Amino acid sequence: MGIVVLTMKASVIEMFLVLLVTGIHSNKEMTKIKRPKFNVPQINCDVKAGKIINPEFVVKCPAGCQDPKYHVYGTDVYASYSSVCAAAVHSGVLDNSGGKILVRKVAGQSGYTGSYSNGVQSLSLPRWRESFIISEGKPPKGVTYPSALTYSSPKSQAAKAGETTKAYQKPSVPGTTAEPVTLMQAPGTTLVKATHTTLPKPSLSAGSTTSSPRLQPVGHRSWDLGETDLWKLGSVLLDAGFVPKEELSTQPLEPISQGDPNCKVDLSFLIDGSASIGKRRFRIQKQFLADIAQALDIGPAGPLMGVVQYSDNPATQFNLKTHMNSQDLKAAIEKITQRGGLSNVGRAISFVTKNFFSKANGNRGSAPNVAVVMVDGWPTDKVEEASRVARESGINIFFITIEGAVENEKQYVMESNFANKAVCRTNGFYSLSVQSWFSLHKIVQPLVKRVCDTERLACSKTCFNSADIGFVIDGSSSVGTGNFRTVLQFVANLSKEFEISDTDTRIGAVQYTYEQRLEFGFDAYSTKPDILNAIKSVGYWSGGTSTGAAISFALEQLFKKSKPNKRKLMILITDGRSYDDIRIPAMAAHHKGVITYAIGVAWAAQDELDIIASYPAKDHAFFVDEFDHLYKSVPKVIQNICTEFNSRPRN
Question: For this UniProt entry, which residues form the secretion signal (predicted)?
């Protein structure tokens, strides 16, 4: 009997083990079932975040979104009017080859600051109704995102009573409650209380029991709406003056000002942060800057403005490319705090010359550089030498002196007549004197008018960007083919030193023997590479040496077409004595205001070089004994051209 019982127990145990193993095997088979693969939606470079309704999504961007035609607004946090993929490149999450990104919508900002990053220039925007941020396209563990995006209608997104809408399903996150609908109250309405119900939880993944509620943007009211007729409740809210935050503004984006094109200047304000100015006057100074910013209409196609505060030492508050509209600029000015210390204006001007007007700081090259120096009383260091260097660098210095030294205070002024020693020209155009800080607002419009008058910004013209240079080249038989190529290299080396364009320095060339030939005029080429190629292409002529006739020909065929506001420079290269008279043509050139440099080689006659050259001859006539030594004259000629330019009277 006992044996039978044991056998039955063993059979039961055996059956239990079989069932247990079978169940485990079945569970393993179930775990082997693959989940459906997530297909990442692809979008084009021009798709804006505001056109996508989903509050959070993963997308794949194509290559090539670094192109400037795809606009981005903001830095790190972007206005939803931005291209999603271009913003991803700007943020550094993607490069120009494209890839996957995770996009999350956030609340609208009161302002967006533009910046240059990763090959993309983002723009500033005063405000926008919705923003987004970007991170790497790897979803958090357990979170799934839609394989298809929901796009807004191209028509107005404002809902109308009686219409039906497609509900958007947020990404399923294990253990979380559905995201409440965020609503905002329209102006002049009363809050209507809604019944508090809860949406059903999304399906949970196996084994998940945790809850992770989603945070709402600060300052927004949250409403949890139930399964009951959502649209009817929504209609009540709309009637009460509420609209979803995505639909708060249905008006098209106002055109962003690109700035006043009639005032395209790169402008630096040097403001006084010394202790002597006091807090009250410092605030008046900031208000003056804000008024200037408003009056200028800041923008990438117009004026750009940065601020340097000086005291013991200067410091850049923000550079030319930091703020791209007047609104952002005014907000930044308001945040400037006073440094305290001395009024070292000379040191500040040197700082601006060396550091501020650089390409890295937003200097455009095509716009005049203007520095407006504001001084309370008088500087505590000397400004003359620093200002001279600034002027020679092409910076137009304006001086605003507020509450200048009265008679019994002049003994404390380190450098008398400091404003006239600093400004671009001493004709009164660049200097403004204000008797009281409380009268400073009166010069806003006069100052704006002056800095925008680019035709009168004389210091924008430097020795490198303000001339029409005509080369008159001896192509006689005594020169020879090899030496002629050396002469052309000398001409090219000189030309390389100048800023060449149709508005800057222009280059022309004449070759002569007994006869004369215009190789190319001032208006033929407007870029440095084109000029250098044209010089290289000049063919050797060979013949006699009629230098006088060549000068007359250059005056008629070349310099007669020079622009009125250009300095006229003639650089003549010859290797021998002229067969004709050079006195009368040379005098005609001097009389017409053509500054003439005479470069003689080998058998050239020094007495003729001195006659051809402008006065004084020692600064305008050069001689080398061999063609191979011509290159040594390049630095001397350039130095003399610039010395002469910078020594002109400043009136």
Answer: 1-26
- The rounded distance, in Å, linking the Cα atoms of 361 and 257 is 21
CATH architecture of 266-456: 3-Layer(aba) Sandwich (3.40)
Distances, alpha carbon 294 to alpha carbons 143, 445, 472, in Å:
48, 11, 51
Would you put residue 149 in left (φ > 0), alpha (ψ -120 to 50) or beta?
beta
Residue type (1 letter), 405: A
What is the H or E stretch that residue 578 is in?
A: none
Tell me the pairing of strands 181-185 and 221-223. antiparallel
Return the DSSP state at 547: H
Q: Could you state, in order of their start, the residue ranges of all structural domains in the chain?
A: 49-136, 266-456, 467-647
Residue type, 128: W
Nearest to 238 by CA among 169, 282, 183, 195: 183
Which of 303, 443, 509, 285 is CA-nearest to residue 376? 285
Contact 140, 16 (CB under 8 A): no
Q: How many CB atoms lie within 10 A of CB 17?
A: 10
Class of residue 338 by CB neighbours under 10 A (exposed 0-12, middle 13-18, buried 19+): buried
* 366: CB partners within 8 A, 6+ apart: 264
Q: What is the chain's Cα-based Rg?
A: 38
Q: What confidence tens digit (pLDDT) does each residue in 124-169 have?
A: 887 788 999 999 887 777 788 888 898 886 533 333 333 333 333 4
Instruction: Tell me what pLDDT residue 189 has.
Output: 36
Contacts within 8 Å (CB) and 24+ apart, 436-439: 436/402, 436/403, 437/281, 437/284, 437/285, 437/376, 437/402, 437/403, 438/284
Provide DSSP, 271-303.
Answer: EE--GGGHHHHHHHHHHHHHHHHHHHT--TTS-
Task: Give the Cα separation of 548 and 156 in Å (integer).
Answer: 77
Of 342, 347, 344, the C-alpha closest to 274 is: 342
pLDDT digits (tens, 9 = 90+) for 502-524: 878 999 999 999 999 999 999 99
Please state, in angstroms and rounded to a whole number, the distance separating the CA atoms of residues 130 and 157. 14
Long-range contacts, stretch 135-141, CB < 8 angstroms, 24+ apart: 135/93, 135/101, 135/102, 135/104, 136/93, 136/100, 136/101, 136/102, 137/40, 137/58, 137/59, 137/60, 137/99, 137/100, 137/101, 137/102, 138/100, 138/102, 139/58, 139/102
CATH topology of domain 49-136: Ferric Hydroxamate Uptake Protein; Chain A, domain 1 (2.170.130)
Between 3.90.70.10, 3.40.50.150, 3.40.50.410, 3.30.450.20, what CATH number should domain 467-647 receive? 3.40.50.410
Q: Which of 609, 599, 605, 509 is nearest to 553 (CA)?
A: 509
pLDDT at 72 over 50: yes
CA-closest candidate to residue 624, choices 609, 642, 640, 639: 609
Q: Do domains 49-136 and 266-456 have the same CATH topology?
A: no
Report the 3 state secondary structure along 133-154.
EEEECCCCCCCCCCCCCCECCC
How open is the CA angle 506-509-510, to the nearest 5 degrees? 150
Report the distance separating Cα 62 and Cα 177, nearest Å: 34
Give 528's contacts (C-beta < 8 A, 6+ positions apart). 495, 496, 500
pLDDT of residue 14: 58
